[in-house]
Design goal:
Layout: H1 7-31, H2 35-38, E1 43-49, E2 54-57, H3 62-78, E3 89-92, E4 105-114, E5 117-127, E6 156-160, E7 163-164, H4 166-174, H5 179-207, H6 209-232, E8 237-247, E9 253-264, E10 267-271, H7 287-302, H8 310-313, E11 316-319, H9 337-352, E12 370-376, E13 383-389, H10 418-424, E14 427-434, E15 450-456, E16 461-466, E17 487-490, E18 498-500, E19 503-509, E20 514-518, H11 533-541, H12 547-554
Parallel strand pairs: 10-11
Antiparallel strand pairs: 1-2, 1-5, 3-4, 3-6, 4-5, 6-7, 8-9, 9-10, 12-13, 12-16, 14-15, 15-20, 16-19, 17-18, 17-20
Length: 558
């Protein structure tokens, strides 16, 4: 314990900082222009100390923490204290120069000063629907190097001493599609940071510099103790697991991700050395993305209540040689890095499942199924970009079925409601439903995937997409059966119905044609023959399981 401050005061201050973080996130969401931010909440916020150590992260997207961690530390490396001023805002998105994880996630940070001294940073990050590059939405599956993926922004100032640097802002806007929407989203990020600086300043006025400094140190130390105590509950040993990505979109198939996890006392080491070399397609992970993914997974498995801050990382050691798919080297493409991050989650859970079976879950949909529609709205004659990542099934658990049609693991976005989608874009949703029989059978069933069929109205657009678990099924656990795979199709239910690859770019879709996006389900947990018969009958009544599958998986059902 830090003898300078008591635990109650520390916890009060932690919650007050957390309230600032949440207020920043809400301000960003409510003032953004794009549906991806204002409706789907593809954003995060956090607070850091002057050295760039994470103090409090909001309960938003786990994968975003890596990008913000990287940015603040890169700022401190690049800018001396004499070059950081009140009113500055820094911006970056680059995985190699700015500590990011992919280019559409634009991270920003603003310093907080007290009595002329740098004391903290506030930060936010938002997934922009486009950052330029070869394909609308900057998320297509056909990009092979980071230069194709969009505008790379190293850690630079976008505001200096309270004044926006218009030349920098103009340069960014010149390189993106739908700049009007981008302006609105960037302004929302700026405003969120200005709010955060004011709110943190208020806390310093209330508590004083020394008390806040001592509270932050005590918080990091308490988090370290808490996570170490959790690690000690896992039996010492070495645990291994491997899983595979379907493909990279360029002929590399069944791409392995392997984890060897060593638990010794209150420390844990995760070694990804035996994973595949980085691939041509854009599913490679930067180190910051891997770090965030590991932190999320261990938080879930070890202690979901432990705060997310720098203290969490102290007993966790990650080995991932540069040039592998889990720690890609420049200029590897990484726009679809979430696909591989989801598989990293799966292999960590798979490895530790024998040691902590009550906490493990079967494989979830294992994808970040992404769809991008780009065209000119026939009513307004303005270009639009509709970007969405779709949920799917979550894995069966030791005590309960997996959830149907949800975002899983390192993503935590909402869906875009049909009403909002159809009011914003010249698109019509013909089908939005759960997919029967896509949840793997088990004592506790896996969650079901989603289906959304989109009709193009009165114009021609391009369609890009990226998905995983379209070939290799999400595995079941402890006797549970695998979940269903995903699918993309043109003209569903018609004579000319055509399957599309899971990683495609700029497919031309004509007026009145329909695209069907179908996401994977999830694996079941436990022996299906041990399932409660009433739950089987309930699934049959609700159309989640067909009679044929129920008979095959569970036996005779009365």
């Amino acid at each position: 314990m830090n003898p300078k401050i008591d635990p109650i005061t520390t916890e009060v201050i932690r919650n007050q900082i957390l309230s600032v973080v949440e207020e920043m996130a809400i301000a960003l969401m409510k003032s953004a222009y794009s549906t991806n931010i204002k409706e789907r909440r593809d954003l995060s916020a956090a607070v850091f100390d002057a050295e760039g150590r994470a103090i409090v992260q909001g309960e938003h997207l786990p994968l975003h923490l890596g990008s913000m961690l990287g940015l603040v530390k890169k700022i401190r490396e690049k800018f001396s204290l004499e070059k950081i001023f009140p009113g500055d805002i820094f911006i970056s998105n680059d995985p190699y120069r700015g500590g990011g994880s992919h280019l559409p996630d634009v991270a920003m940070a603003a310093p907080v000063f007290k009595d002329g001294k740098l004391v903290m940073f506030v930060g936010n990050i938002a997934h922009h629907a486009d950052i330029g590059g070869a394909s609308p939405g900057s998320m297509a599956g056909d990009m092979t190097e980071i230069y194709q993926e969009g505008l790379r922004i190293p850690p630079i100032k976008i505001f200096e001493k309270g004044t926006r640097l218009e030349d920098i802002f103009d340069l960014i806007l010149l390189n993106v599609r739908v700049p009007k929407e981008r302006i609105g989203d960037y302004q929302a990020q700026f405003s969120s940071l200005h709010l955060g600086v004011r709110r943190i300043g208020t806390l310093y006025g209330k508590w004083g510099t020394e008390t806040l400094r001592d509270a932050m140190e005590a918080l990091l130390d308490a988090t370290e103790r808490q996570i170490r105590a959790g690690i000690r509950q896992i039996p010492d040993g070495t645990y291994q697991f491997e899983d595979y990505l379907d493909d990279d979109g360029f002929g590399n198939r069944k791409i392995p991700i392997r984890a060897k996890i060593t638990v010794k006392g209150d420390e844990i080491t995760l070694d990804f050395t035996e994973s595949a070399p980085q691939v041509k397609g854009n599913i490679n992970i930067s180190y910051s993305g891997l770090q965030a993914t590991v932190a999320y997974t261990l938080k879930c498995l070890i202690d979901p209540n432990v705060p997310s801050n720098e203290g969490f990382y102290r007993p966790i050691h990650i080995i991932a040689p540069e040039g592998t798919i889990t720690n890609a080297a420049f200029p590897a493409a990484s726009a679809g890095r979430a696909q591989a991050c989801q598989r990293v989650v799966d292999v960590i859970i798979g490895a530790l499942a024998p040691a902590i079976p009550e906490r493990a879950v079967a494989a979830a949909n294992g994808s970040n199924t992404t769809a991008v529609f780009y065209g000119k709205n026939p009513e307004t004659q303005e270009y639009y970009i509709y970007l969405e990542t779709y949920g799917g099934g979550s894995g069966g658990r030791a005590y309960k079925d997996g959830k149907d049609g949800v975002q899983v693991h390192i993503t935590n976005t909402s869906n875009l409601p049909i009403e909002a989608l159809e009011s914003e874009y010249p698109l019509f949703i013909e089908t939005y439903a759960l997919i029967p029989d896509s949840g793997g059978a088990g004592k506790h069933r896996g969650g079901m995937g989603l289906r959304r069929d989109v009709r193009i109205l009165n114009h021609t657009c391009t369609f890009s997409a990226q998905g995983e678990r379209f070939v290799l099924q999400p595995w079941g656990l402890f006797g549970g059966k695998p979940g269903g795979t995903g699918r993309l199709a043109l003209h569903p239910g018609r004579k000319r119905e055509t399957d599309l690859p899971s990683k495609i770019s700029k497919v031309e879709i004509q007026s009145n044609e329909v695209v069907s996006i179908q996401t994977p389900g999830a694996g079941g947990y436990g022996n299906p023959r041990e399932r409660n018969p009433e739950l089987i009958r309930k699934d049959l009544r609700e159309g989640k399981t067909s009679k044929q599958n129920a008979k095959e998986d569970y036996g005779s059902v009365a």
